[in-house]
Amino acid sequence: MQPITICICRQVICLSILFGMGSSASAKQDTPDPKFQIYLCFGQSNMEAGARPESQDLAPVDPRFQMLAAVDNPKLERKKGNWYVATPPINRPENNMGPVDFFGRTMVANLPKDYRVGVINVSVAGAKIELWQKNTYATYLATAPDWMKGMCKQYDDNPYKRLVEMAKIAQEKGVIKGILLHQGESNSTDKDWPSKVKGIYNDLIKDLDLDPQNVPLLAGELKTAEEHGVCAAFNVNILPHLIEVVPNSYIISSAGCKGTPDPFHFNTEGMRELGHRYALQMLKILGLEKSGTGKRTSVSRD
């Protein structure tokens, strides 16, 4: 095993070299580790992560759960294109926690101990799905509000391209096993949303030379009507059609996931549950979770 370099930021331990993973994005190994599972994540604000960590979320993260930084984060001494332990925020510096945090923590708590999980999160609050379409992103961004343009500047004004760029770096070390999506609040009545997502999914499959039969798309429901979600009809009228156009896709229920007082967002408890459900579905797809419950612990205890 190579030496481990440790830096402490906000009492967070970042391992720049872990299990043979170099700190340099250009460092390569001959064969990607099939037990290092990579998951691509994109969407808008709920996927981007706005939930504030609670005491139970602040225990040390299992170092088997890794993030590939998609942007620089000087405060945590992170550089774009490098691997770190997945302590929040696992995307832009301004973010907090979201379903991806709890997805990864649940995954490593249930996977065999020689497995690792790596995530890449390229999400933008408030953005329509058009922001990730190759033929529409530039036109869409040109008329976007300044605050959204500011977010996208961190991705060089092209979130899709940044996601692919980071995914190719990740493929040097591991194997892409799935794509996680949570988006729709800004397309809540758009009947073409499923076909637009299909196009993005197909582009990712082609650009990353993936086999669609081996890379499922997991898409989460929006905040429910019971939680006063104003876009809840999307869960009934739009989202279910995704599985008609993307055969290897799965819908992640948000029923019972608690929300904030506003009409769009999940609270920390809701994010925790939603992320657990993404993981539970992925574990079932992998044939590694049989009971239907899985460990809900946010970090591995043994």
Write structural notes for this entry.
- This protein is an alpha/beta fold and 302 residues long.
- The protein has a single domain, classed as Rossmann fold.
- Helices cover 28% and strands 16% of the residues.
- It is built from nine helices and nine strands.
- A seven-stranded mixed β-sheet has the order 5-4-6-3-7-8-9, sandwiched between helices. It has a two-stranded antiparallel ribbon with strand order 1-2.
- A hairpin with a 2-residue loop joins strand 1 (6-9) and strand 2 (12-15).
- Helix 2 packs across helix 9.
- The chain is globular, with a radius of gyration of 18 Å.
Mean pLDDT rating: 89
Number of strands: 9
CATH fold field value: Rossmann fold
CATH architecture: 3-Layer(aba) Sandwich
Helix content: 25-40%
Query: Would you identify the regions where 5 or more consecutive residues have pLDDT less than 50?
Result: 1-28, 297-302
Main β-sheet, spatial strand arrangement: 5-4-6-3-7-8-9
Structural class: alpha/beta
How many helical stretches? 9
Helix and strand pattern: EEEHEEHEHHHEHEHHEH
Shape, per Cα inertia axes = globular
Q: Would you state the CATH class?
A: Alpha Beta
Number of domains: 1
